[in-house]
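Suppose you are handed a protein chain with no further information: no name, no annotation, nothing but its sequence. What can you learn? This example shows the usual starting point.
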Amino acid sequence: MASFEMVNILEHCRLSPAPAGTVGDQSLPLTFFDIPWLHFPLIHHLFFYEFPYPNNSIFLDNIFPRLKHSLSLALDHFYPFAGNLIFPPNFGKPEIHYANGDTVSLVFAESNKDFNHISGNHQRNVAEFRSLVPELPPVSVSSGSVVAPLLAIQVTLFPKSGICIGFTFRRVTADGNACTRFIKSWASINKLGKETAMVKSGSLPFYDRTMVKDPNGLASIFWNHVGKTKFGGFERQLSNSNVIATFIMGQAHVQKLKKWALSQSPTSSHVSTFTVICAYVWTCMVKAQARNGEKVAEDELEHFVFGADCRALLDPPLPETYFGNCLVSCFATAKTKELVGDNGFLPAAKKIGEAIEERVRKKEGVLKDAKKWISEYESRKDDRIIGVAGSPRFAVYDIDFGLGKPKKSEVVSIDLTGSISLNECNNNKESFEIGLSLPKIQMDAFADIFDSAFLF
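A reasonable first move is to predict its three-dimensional structure. Written in structure tokens, the prediction is:
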């Protein structure tokens, strides 16, 4: 087994919202959108920035203090991240609670890794990222209540090369929309030195959870199911054997796929960029498994799951800045034999389009049949499910801390969730990055299929 060097810890601090005492004790109940994510693996998201500084002093004397100050200011608006998930005695239904003095763990470190290697698109061992991923403080017990921190951050220097800003989120806290808004807010404050832009843009988080109506008691139904499993933190380790890689799909290929799908099925309901990218990647992954000799019955069911933001689809609608989870899961299901054929992309695109139409665009509303959400998911085999992390609309390559735009965004937690990552390219917003974590032999097969299929 290969060994991967650790980082040198330069400073470990705990930061509270600033100015101190402005937030006060606050509690947020978990809604039925949050509860299903309680036992989900942690989210690890890394941002790499090129910055060939001549020595460490510019960071120690200037950039580090500025990052700490701006983070405290950002937490004043996004205070739940400084709080904890609190379970009352006997593991009753938890809530997010912030009390004065609660903090976020922030680590400054230095690495001797090759910056250009670790921030590339080529295959890299997942274990190489482990030392760059922030560690959440451990789950603890206080006065009989279980206390689980929600966020940790690590800033890692690569001498004369660049910097990595890494985040570990507890998934039950908020969805990708809310987490990305927090990162963007921190970056904006750090770059501009003030909060004015965030306030003027109307991007302050919205916390009123009474706006999430639950007439059918979904929160109680979901908790009665999810609460049966004892909470353990679920801080699983990244793989020692998988590799992670990024694949690029340009706009020309996207348009080619759309034309192919529409030529074969002119009445297809939802032939979007998202649909064709996901359909193409889904079929390539299933074909890669088959090429490696995986023994699966032809009638085995393959599943592709993705979240749809439904803030604007609720009654009443929630603002875009609502803090928390607000996703409905869409499932596309097809038989293995449908996807491994030469034209496997076509049924995949049809199934994904139908899933969007069924879940998001139904006249009865997005919450129809919501009672079945958890049972629907659990009825599917975990090893036959592929998910999606991220979205091009998050515009992660616009996140500028004053260091310029990121060279690379890497959602390394896809190694834990069995998902792909999807976002826009760093140098061309009309192209797209797809991240995967797979065993090397399967990644090689996927790469060959992904590239060769573009020749149609």
